[in-house]
Design a protein that fits this description.
binds zinc ion, 2 strands, about 140 residues, mainly alpha, two-stranded antiparallel sheet
Length: about 140
């Protein structure tokens, strides 16, 4: 951890900066339809995808120049994960999801996350009370 991790975090930021203009952020939470504190959730962690992809291709993304040189290529090869596998969630439901699946959920949990999201939405619409673990809301400073 440490320096290398920080640099990789910067690499993801470059990808997000480039890709976010095309994100479709809805005006309400997919689950509860609230219109405040909305955030985007990727069921495939862009951080994990980017790091695995760079390792596979032997790309050095630890410098600004390194990531900027391959950023478009990464986005082009991951359009589905970046633009389609994305949900608009309120902060409360976003935090809850990451409380269950972790800060950067592994890609193999993507379908489980989708199922969980669909279930919460259904519960909300049928009026069945969903209890939230309030105690775990604060520790998540950063989501992926
Ligand atoms: Zn919500
Ligand atoms: Zn998220």
């Amino acid at each position: 951890m440490g320096k290398n991790t920080d640099n990789k975090r910067i690499a993801v930021k470059h990808v997000r900066d480039k890709a976010k203009s095309a994100y479709v952020k809805l005006d309400n939470c997919y689950i509860c339809h609230t219109q405040v504190d909305l955030e985007l959730h990727h069921t495939h962690s862009i951080t994990l995808l980017l790091n695995a992809w760079a390792d596979r291709k032997n790309y050095d993304i630890t410098t600004d120049a390194g990531i900027l040189a391959v950023r478009d290529e990464f986005i082009e090869e991951h359009r589905r994960e970046i633009y389609d596998c994305v949900y608009t969630l309120c902060n409360r439901h976003h935090v809850q999801l990451h409380g269950i699946y972790g800060k950067a959920p592994p890609s193999h949990t993507a379908s489980k996350q989708e199922l969980w999201i669909a279930k919460q939405r259904q519960k909300f619409e049928t009026g069945v009370e969903v209890s939230l673990p309030h105690a775990s809301i604060s520790p998540f400073a950063k989501f992926y």
